[in-house]
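Recall the central idea of this unit: under ordinary conditions, the amino acid sequence of a chain determines the structure it adopts. In this exercise we apply that idea directly, starting from the sequence alone.
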Amino acid sequence: MTYEEWEQTAPEAITRDVLWKMRVYRLGLFASDIGWEDVTKLMHDPRTLKLSDQLYRSLGSISANIAEGYSRGSGKDRARFYEYALGSARESRDWYYKSRHVLLDSAVEHRVDLCSQIIRLLLTMLPDERHRFFKEDSVSYQVDDSA
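Accordingly, the structure predicted from this sequence is:
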């Protein structure tokens, strides 16, 4: 399934949410969906059974942390969850590399590239979130000098 085909199958309740506008979120959700089949293949080999669990957890954590971070009120809070997503994307890429002995080379290459794309997007977002400040409107005060 291609990304474009997958995108057409996403439920309206998710695609109507403003979070859907974030490409990194969509890619993270896509990665966890296509990872389902990969994990199923890895589970059939006793040597990669634990790897399959770790892979699926890290894949699911990418979009989940982006979603949670997006819902936070400050840039500092958002950045923390985007950092968690970044760690999960790197972890997923690592697990995919280790799964290359069971999965097809083309699948591993695609998944590693997808994780790398997510990593690049998160690395671009993080500095903006870390330095985002909320500025209050200035208020002028009048002081009665006659008192």
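The two ends are 77 Å apart (CA to CA).
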